[in-house]
Amino acid sequence: MQPNTISSILTLLLRLWRHITPRRRGQFGLLLILMIAASFAEILSIGAVLPFLAVLTAPERFFMLSAFRPFINIMGITNASQILFPLTILFGIAALISGAMRLLLLWASTRLSFATGADLSINIYRRTLYQPYAVHVARNSSAVISGISGKANSVINSVIVPALTLISSTIMLIAILIALLSVDPVIALTAFGGFGLIYAGIIKLTQNRQLINSQCIARESTQVIKSLQEGLGGIRDVLIDGSQAAYCHIYRNADHPLRRAQGNNYFIGASPRFGIEALGMMLIAVLAYALARQPDGIAKAIPVLGALALGAQRLLPVLQGAYSSWSSIQGGQVSLRDTLELLDQPLPDYVEPTSTEPLPFLHQIELNNLSFRYTPQTPWVLKKIDLTIEKGSRIGFIGVTGSGKSTLLDIVMGLLLPTEGSLYIDGQPIMTHNQRLWQAHIAHVPQTIFLADSTIEENIAFGVSKGMIDMNRVKQAARHAQIDDIIESWPKKYQTYVGERGIRLSGGQRQRIGIARALYKQADVLIFDEATSALDNETEQAVMQAIESLGDDLTVLIIAHRLTTLTNCTYIVELGDGGIKRIGSYRDIVSKKNVNGRALPLKTHSLHCNS
What we know:
The chain is an alpha/beta fold. 60% of the residues lie in helices and 10% in strands.
């Protein structure tokens, strides 16, 4: 066993310990006390077999043992025939206590292990949800889902449970060894040392293979989730294209190596038991032969052999349990490392806000010399943007695909922080510490609406617990989104289930529910990212007129594919080549003219729309 392997695993376990709550740590302390108590019960059961078998073979020798003289006097025992019954009762009680303690230890350790696993899984999910938008954009969701579900479960089964078993087994081994040393020190040390060396040799021979299997399990478990997401997420295209076989092949290529690696690790962990048990039986046979040839032969040999046999019966499973646990921890170390990376994700300051009041927004949103790119290696998406948007204005954004429209609004919403320059709200810069306070003003309607597999009511009041939903607000939002008549025509009305991702609704219905969701929030900054593209012209105009009627304090920013969507906006901003190409009214943009025949100096001009 390589020292660096032990050091690496211990380092990972210490990192894991730091993520365990104080309450669970206290419970682990109580579990340790239970382990020690169970080990004393093992000593009691092994120690009780020696006098029991001695009385069975030669009852009169029991009177010669000074340790049992007080017991004989208390019980009033005068002859050998009276000894057997109370000793049988005591031996049975000792065996029952030992079994009960082992059962209690198994229940407590299993219960605590899975409770701790639940804590870790919830912590990973919580930390992941609080990560900045840029982090979510940069990584594959399959890796996160695999970490939260599969790898967190793997940590329970491959690390936490085995670690507790290893600690328990170590304490048990020490207790059993003490009991066997009292019977025959030479034989006990020989057996314990021999078996221990065999297991140590097996660990050394298999650790590289287990590390390879561990890496395969961590890698392929992510690929399995990825193949499931892609195949089921694009089920319409899969059915139309008839590409089921291709996705089955992708899944098979990930699942087969995963199962093979898991099977290999299981075999490595379980297989030594059978050889060790055979060696244990051979050792007892040799001892029986050697002891039988000594004076007092069988009479002396039976108690010793009985105690050693019982000790071996306890010792070998505990040794196997310790080895299997260590083997499991080795096999799960890569999944543990991946899980710890998710647990180590930092939480933003606003998780525990010092202020619950939204950031004041009375005058304007200002983008000052703003530039953005996703990584230092990628090109600039936006370069030196200067723009001022007055509160209550309605601003349209147009531009070719990739011109940075959605990225610009992501920055305005505080989802992305500028690489250079700043976003100001009434002169106050938006940074990590106050972005959540600014986002309290914002409602967003994306082009692709996510709908949960729940009711219309719950989807409009998205993120609000069912008991806290204001039905009047829900209906008002649906009315402004021009979908209330449709909902009222359904048998279950607002209690209608939409299906997974709203599959039971049309594209236009999903879009209008998304708009109603934004309106339910009653935010004063409403952002549409091609949110009306799935609506027909008549419905789109009705929705936009309803939004216009919400009041002059509502600031609306709209990305539109159709210019007609922006008819009511006085000013439209056209983006291109990373910057603002021009701004102008709807008529100016359509006629391809700038305001006053020239580009405006945007930093000094506020954009507003007529109400």
